[in-house]
Amino acid sequence: VFAAESVGELRKFDNVAHRGASGYAPENTIAAFDKAVDMKADYIEIDVQRSKDGKLVVIHDTTVDRTTDGTGAVKDLTFEQLRSLDAGSFKAPEFAGEKIPTFEEVLDRYHGKAGILIELKAPEKYSGIEEEVALQLKARNLDKPQNNKIIIQSFNFDSVKKINTLLPKVPVGVLTSSRAHTTDQALKEFATYADYFNPSYGIVTKELVDKVHGLGMGISSWTVRSPEAAQFLIDMKVDAIITDYPDYVDPRN
Ligand code: G3P
Ligand code: CA
């Protein structure tokens, strides 16, 4: 076991718990986020969408079918309907009764305990969601430079540009798994507004990492589900590793 100081020196990247410690607990639930904090993850990653009646909720898929005992699109269900669902049993019976969290409760419960990597999931389905996310962050003073453990990312680049305009001091990232987005021209365009270029690990090369760094952006890559994938990204020297298993990228292991 390393002393805390030497762990700090050894750790050159952030350990980001993907949908919480979702390898061990049901994704995007308090159980998974608490587990990530217990496992000393630097950040939790969350997916934000919106209920029919306008509440911001934390869930990955655009339907509730896979991760709850309900059916239907997130955007067609009221918050009361969403909240009544069991979001834990799909993972294991011991998690029965876990609920779909709200964005607000995740901010309140985890800010200061872990960084929060906020993904705007399918924002094209939720007109105005960028303003609503911005409002919640501003209400908590989380839009200031000193609160630098909030990052916002999306696969929807227009949405990333919009949130960057609304919250100019909050770092933003673009998500992609497409090699078409790794050309010099594409990367240069991203660098005009994005702080991070966040690719799936299948398209990561040392050359890409160097190019992204050369343009002044950070690079966070996903989704680690094996020790081999973790080692690959450690070797590539990315800035953050987004993983279902925070222990796979813990230098103390
Ligand atoms: O944080 C990166 C990763 O979450 C992007 O993919 O499908 O898991 O939201 P996905
Ligand atoms: Ca995500």
Main attributes?
253 residues; alpha/beta; TIM Barrel; 30% helix; 18% strand; globular; binds SN-glycerol-3-phosphate; binds calcium ion; signal; PLC-like_Pdiesterase_TIM-brl; Glycerophosphodiester phosphodiesterase
Describe this entry's structure for a reader.
With 253 residues, the protein is an alpha/beta fold. The chain has one domain: Alpha-Beta Barrel (TIM Barrel). The chain has helices at residues 4-10, 30-38, 79-83, 103-110, 129-139, 157-166, 184-190, 206-214, 227-236; strands at 14-17, 43-50, 56-58, 115-120, 150-154, 172-176, 196-199, 218-224, 240-243. The chain has an eight-stranded parallel barrel with strand order 1-2-4-5-6-7-8-9, surrounded by five helices. Helix 8 links the parallel strand 7 and strand 8. The longest helix is centred in the middle third of the chain and has 11 residues, at 129-139. It is globular, with a radius of gyration of 18 Å. The N and C termini lie close together (8 Å). The relative contact order is 0.14. Calcium ion binds at residues 45, 47, 119.
CATH topology: TIM Barrel
Helix fraction by DSSP (H/I, runs of at least 4): 25-40%
Number of domains: 1
Strand order of the largest sheet: 1-2-4-5-6-7-8-9
Give me the CATH superfamily: Phosphatidylinositol (PI) phosphodiesterase
CATH architectural category: Alpha-Beta Barrel
Could you give a short account of the major beta sheet? 8 strands, parallel, barrel
Query: What string gives the helices and strands in order?
Result: HEHEEHHEHEHEHEHEHE
Give a quick rundown of the structure.
The protein has 9 helices and 9 strands.
